[in-house]
What we know:
There is one protein chain. The chain has 2 domains: 2-81, Winged helix-like DNA-binding domain superfamily/Winged helix DNA-binding domain (Arc Repressor Mutant, subunit A, Orthogonal Bundle); 86-264, Beta-Lactamase (2-Layer Sandwich). It has 9 helices and 11 strands. Helix content is 42%, strand content 21%. The protein has helices at residues 12-25, 33-40, 44-56, 73-85, 88-103, 145-151, 156-162, 179-192, 233-253, and strands at residues 2-3, 9-10, 31-32, 60-63, 68-71, 106-113, 116-123, 138-140, 195-198, 205-213, 219-228. The protein is α+β, with helices and mostly antiparallel strands. The relative contact order is 0.11.
Amino acid sequence: MKTNNNNTPTVKSAERVVLILQKLSDYPQGINFSDLHELVKLPKSSLYQLLTTLERTGMIDFNSVTKKYSLGIKFWDFATKYFNKASITQVAEPYLNELLNEYDETIQMAVLDDSDVVYTMKLTSSRPIQLVSQVGTRLPAYATGIGKAMLACLSEQRVLELYPTSKLPSFTNNTIDTRDKLIKELISTKERRYAIDLGEYSPGIRCIASPILGFNNTCVAAISISMLENHSQDKVDELAQGLLECTKSISQRLGSTDPTAWVKMG
Length: 266
């Protein structure tokens, strides 16, 4: 037994188990003993004994054909139970409150339902702005920043399936009105790492938004910051930085191993 930086006793074997599971999570297709040994730097005999125990308990699998170890069904069973228990709203709420307290701008969260967004949370600034959206409101995803943040996590083929016609209805002069323009905007969203909405549904309102990822780095929701369109770009950049830090933290709490994985999807 040893102590950590807080002088709290720790168990060496437990730390080794956590290290092994962390490394295996980076290799969903599996990794052989030699390569894993190089990564964890444990004595071969100790590593083999720990792997055998983890395999016996179902926490990891060993493929006798490929000779590779990977996370087992029991591990995913635990993870799924945690995910189901931890409501996205419950996990996200304290982070959204921090965002509101830090910047005093209206904060919203939504989920994607086919081609629409459904708003699940709204925290209002002390300088309230006129928004159509409320908790439970359903809006077309392509016309909102929060919707485009989630659409950017989908493959282009899936976006084309959601919008089978080339023409899209307009709500303001700034609404993206064709499918081709939407595809280009989703590419730009990935490049800048957040989505924007320049009065595309509510005139005079600017929004920035970023997705939240969960297990398997799949999009489960998104968060937006709404403000008046006269904010300076420097202010928008500051808000975007805070937003990205917020969605990264929530994504990690929900099981994402790479909160930026969505920028590489497509």
